[in-house]
Amino acid sequence: MKLLDINGRWKGWSIVNEREKLLETVRESEVEFIHLQFTDILGVMKNISITVDQLDKALNNEIMFDGSSIDGFVRIEESDMYLRPDLSTFVVLPWSSYPKEARLICDVFMADGTPFEGCPRNTLKKVLKEAYDMGYILNVGPECEFFLFHTNERGQPTIETHDDAGYFDLAPADLGGSARKEMTLVLKQMGFEIEASHHECAPGQHEIDFKYADALTTADNIMTFKMAVRIIAQRHGLHATFMPKPKFGLSGSGMHVNMSLQTLDGKNAFYDETDEMQLSKTAYHFLGGVMEHAKGFTAITNPTVNSYKRLTPGYEAPTIIAWSSGNRSPLIRVPSKREKSTRIELRSPDPSANPYIGLAAVLKSGLDGIKNNIEPPKPVNRNVYKMDESEMAERGIERLPANLYEAVQELLKDSVVQEALGRHALKKFIDAALYEWGEYSKYVSQWELDRYLRKF
User: Fold this and answer.
1) Which of 6, 60, 269, 363 allows an S-S link to 261, with CB 3.0 to 4.6 Å?
2) What digits encode the pLDDT tens for the residues 60-94?
3) Catalytic residues
4) Triad 210, 418, 258: Cα angle to 5°
5) For strand 332-333 and strand 344-346, is the pairing parallel, antiparallel, or unpaired?
6) Quick check: pTM over 0.70?
7) pLDDT digit string (tens) for 189-206?
8) For the chain, counts of helices (H) and of strands (E)
9) What does R_g of the chain's alpha carbons equal in angstroms?
10) CA–CA separation, 302 and 405 (whole Å)
């Protein structure tokens, strides 16, 4: 029987074989430049480019950089850091013609050879190891929404939409269809299995769904997806943004996260045909843990001031902590498919989130539910937006944090989510969030000028 490693990949493929195959691919593809990519604590992709003659040095983990210049990394007196490429992430970039370019996603290590605890990819790996030791591998399928806007004569983004289309509309109403088509083709060339692409609810809003994978691969794919979408949009004279709520009065962009646990022998740990809903005890307890810690991880899955402009009543984005087998208003939905497809869908995250620490926080919450047999409340199978406060209080239903500051305060109360991030990443993340909240609180917006300038 084949076994999986902690990242959900088959064991038995040696690093020597991987390295030789990579070098052969580089030669055959005539690659001249390689981008060594990694992610900072805020979820922003960083990059160091090398020529192909430096590839051996990179594969020997000898590429060094100054970590003190990266958000959430280290102080200037301890700045030397090293990149360790994950060979499985190698891909030739389809939009490069000549000279050909490729990329490798890297983990960040300290000068003494230990994994850097502020590297988001290392953070996720740590929680994946905990899951693996419990006998599970996390599979994740994201649904990433984004807007396409016009650019001005200087190439700067505007908030003018490129169409007036709505959900599932076609050309000619959906003028972004050609850009989305090229995005889909490029992503396929990069190894993505695209399941669907379509226009979303708001004018200029789109979604491209790719097949689920183990959590680490999915986090890598989300970062790659955002990079590719932006680059292809630019080639069409458009600006792609994953900002959660770029325009007042329109639906915001979410990143629904479909999750299931897989046993080490390949079975779906969430499925139990004998249960009324065909969910296992593991599924219920995982669900219970996610709901228990939802307030605590919201700052991580919704990390910007703008995130909370999306999490408001009146749209499909969830605002209360409840679950359902069918309706889409609660925090968590359990889609109807069962057996291998049994999963839960967390609907609150948005695409501004760092996928590595976001998935780490959610997985840690679910594992806590399994360890402590946390039972979820009864499902809510009606529109939660039509419940009044007294009914919610009677049923013990709570709300998600209403803004970034509240979310940070909830994070500071949740030791389980804090443990997922680790001391270093937690401090840097909270410092950045509180700084953003402080800057936002001091800013005088156009809304305030329109409301108060003549009134007072």
Assistant:
1) 269
2) 888 888 766 666 565 544 567 899 999 999 999 99
3) 66, 143, 145, 200, 207, 256, 328, 345, 347
4) 20
5) antiparallel
6) yes
7) 999 999 988 887 788 899
8) 14, 18
9) 22
10) 11
